[in-house]
Amino acid sequence: MTISDVLMVIAVICIWSLLLVNVALIIAGYLYYIKTENEDVPEIKGEYPFVTIMVPAHNEGVVISKTVESLLALDYPHDRYEIIVINDNSSDNSTELLSRIQSRQPERNLIIINTDAFTGGKGKSNALNIGFTRSRGELIAIYDADNTPERTALRYLVAEIMNDATLGAVIGKFRTRNRDASLLTRFINIETLSFQWMAQAGRWKLFKLCTIPGTNFIMRRSIVESIGGWDVKAIAEDTEISFRIYMMGYRLKFQPKSVTWEQEPQTVKVWFKQRTRWAKGNIYVIVKNIPLLFDRSAAKIRFDILYYLSIYFLLLISLVTSDLLLVLHAMGYVHTTIAGLSSFLWLLAIILFVVGIFVTLTTEKGEMSLSNLWIILLMYVSYCQLWMVVAAYGLFNYLKDVIFKREAKWYKTERY
C-alpha cells in the first residue's frame, strides 16, 4: 500500500466510526422520543419553588420586548418567579423598551439591570454572574434574548428537577422560529432537529448525558454557588458549565416537551460569525477538560470529552485529508488504489445522512414532507461542507486568543 492508501484508510475509518456513532445516537434518540411521547411530565408536588429567570442581553432591542412578554406569560405562578434582564452595555433602544414593559407590569417581579462599559460588555458569562448577584430563586433558569418559550416550558423544567434529586440541571428543546425566512434557516431548522434534539435525546438514552444548550434550561442555585458562577473566559459557557455539573456528581436530563422558539441567522455572514464563535468556545472547553480523560472520577463523562474531541479535531482532519487525497488523485498528482472504495463509502455515507435526518423529521409536526428530501441533499453538499471551514476558522481564532491573551467579549448575533 502507498502512503496515500494508508492515509485514506485511516481517514475513512475515522469518518465512518463517527458516522456510526451518530447513527446509534439517532436510533437511541428516536426510541427516547417514542418513550417520552406517551409519557406525562411529572407534577410539581407541594409548593412551587421560587425560580429566577435570567436573560442576558446586549443590543437586543429588535427582539427583547417579545422575549420578556413571553416570559411574563408563562403558566408558572406569577408570584413564584422573577425575571432578571441584564441589559449589558447596550447602545440601542433596549433600555427604553425594557423600562416601558416594566412600567406596564409594576406588580410583577421584573428586574432590569443596566450595566456600562466598566461593569459589563465582557460577554454572556460575565452578564450572568452580574444577574446572579441579584437573584433570589432556589432554581435558576436561563433564556437567550431572542427566545419565545411556550407557556409550559418553565413548569416542565421545574417539574423534572424537583422530582429527581440526582439532577443538577434539566434542559429543554429549542426550535427555529424563522425557519421559512430563507434557505439557510431551513438548513438550520433541520440541523437543530437532528443534531441538537435527536443527538441530545440519544446521549441521554444511552449514557444519561446531555449538554446545556445555553437557553431553555434550569439548574439548582446551590450548583452555581458551589462552582463560583460562570467561567468568564468561556464563550461556550453552556458546554463548559455542563462538565462542571457532572464533576459535582449530578446528572443533566433532557425534557423535549419543554420548548422554546428562537431566531436563527438569516444570512451566511451572520451564521458564519455565530458558528465560528461556537466552535472557538467548544475548543476552549475541550482543551480545558482534556485532563479529565485521565481522571477516574470523570469516568461518566469521558464519552462526551472524546465525542467533542473527535468532532472538532479528528473528524476535521479526516475530512480534509480524504477530500484532498481524492482531489489530488483525480488530478493525477497522487495515486490511491482505494479511490473507488472511498467513493462508494462516500455515497453510502450520504444515504445514511439523508435517511437519518429524514427519520428525525418524522418526530416533529409539520416537518414530515417528501419535499424536505431535496433540502437535506442540498444541505449535505453545501451547509455541511461549510462546517469544515467553520471548525478550522474557530480553531484559528482560539489559538489567536491564547497567543494574544484576548479577553472574552460580546459577539453580537444580528437580529431580524
TrEMBL record:
Matching Pfam families: Glyco_tranf_2_3
UniProt lineage: Bacteria, Bacillati, Bacillota, Bacilli, Bacillales
GO MF annotation, one: glycosyltransferase activity
Family: Belongs to the glycosyltransferase 2 family.
Organism: Paenibacillus graminis
Transmembrane intervals: 6-33, 305-331, 343-361, 373-396
Classification via InterPro entries: Nucleotide-diphossugar_trans
Record protein name field: Glycosyl transferase family 2
Superkingdom, taxonomy of origin: Bacteria
Keyword annotations: Glycosyltransferase, Membrane, Transferase, Transmembrane, Transmembrane helix
